[in-house]
Amino acid sequence: MTRLLIGFLFVALSCAVYGEIQPTHSFEPIQQIEHPTIPFPHCPNKASYSSLHTPKGVLDYYKKTGKYPTLPPPTTLILCYNEAMVQYLVQKYRHQSCDGCFSEVIYLLDYPGVALACFGIGAPTNAMKIDTAIEWGVKQFISIGTACTIQRGLSLGDLIVCDRAIRDEGISHHYLPYAKYAFASRDLTGKIISVLKGMNKSFHVGTSLTSDAFYKIGKEEVKYFQRDGVLCAEMEAAAEFAVVSLHEEIKIAAIFTLMSDSYANLEWERPVFDKEKKKEAFDFLLTVALHTALGTVKE
User: Fold this and answer.
1) Confidence class of residue 40 from pLDDT cuts 50, 70 and 90?
2) In this predicted model, what pLDDT tens digit does every residue of 156-168 receive, in sequence order?
3) Which of 7, 73, 143, 274 is deepest in the core (most CB within 10 A)?
């Protein structure tokens, strides 16, 4: 009896100190503490503070050191995360590379105000580059790439228009207070949808999971997000949406093709696909992005 009383007291004290522990969608043994008790970032209210190191400061430094671009910023920057695909794509267009600190940016000369860039994979670098590109003068971003399948019922090659992303990476929490989602720009996302409808293409609109943890997507997590209606997973969207959300006049949208790993069957499945099919998929994504940027396809 004494041990039982001690046990009850321990539970009561734990709840008082740490808050009530909630199950995650009823599957065990995973449990989670409500998010307000999670100390991340470790500096409270960090997102509300001004920064010592800013994009403007960096670009001012580049002006002094001769690394500021001599070419003007594009109005629309199309982001791709596969360098080999970028090099394949640009060979099909008249193009010119930028110089200075934006040497990754490639202007598509037959599409005024539009450029393509690969800044690598992952949230940190892309968030930093987008933040700097906004200061440079870029007005909108269109993200194209591949994503991993999470939801059952989707097929290899399906198109996903990502209207929001779950913030399971770290970067977005340094820009915004805690919330589950970061959102794409509604109007630019609507333009992508209009382009796809005008091209008579089928597609899905919905949520992506953005995660930094390449090797830490487990069976329980996949089941959790399947029940939550998540369609796919990638490594950049939530961070990019978060950065852009701080600038009311700047827009961002994202379209993915499911031509990567799949976790839909609760195991890692690596599809075998023809390289030409992958090139065709990226050709199409770039075509959609270009029509979206210039508004050249109507329903």
Assistant:
1) confident
2) 999 999 999 999 9
3) 143
DSSP string, 78-119: EEES-HHHHHHHHTTS-EEE--GGGTTEEEETTSTTEEEE--
Q: What residues contact 129, with CB distance under 8 A and at least 6 apart?
A: 104, 117, 119
Looking at this protein, which amino acid is placed at residue 144?
Answer: I
From CA 79, how far away is CA 77, in angstroms rounded? 6
Q: What is the pLDDT of residue 27?
A: 31
Cβ neighbour number for residue 10 with a 10 Å cutoff: 10
Contact 159/202 with Cβ under 8 angstroms? yes
In angstroms, the CA 215 to CA 200 distance is 37
Residue with tokens 């399947």: 226
Give all domains of the chain, ordered by start, each with its CATH number: 55-294 (3.40.50.1580)
pLDDT at residue 11, rounded to an integer: 34
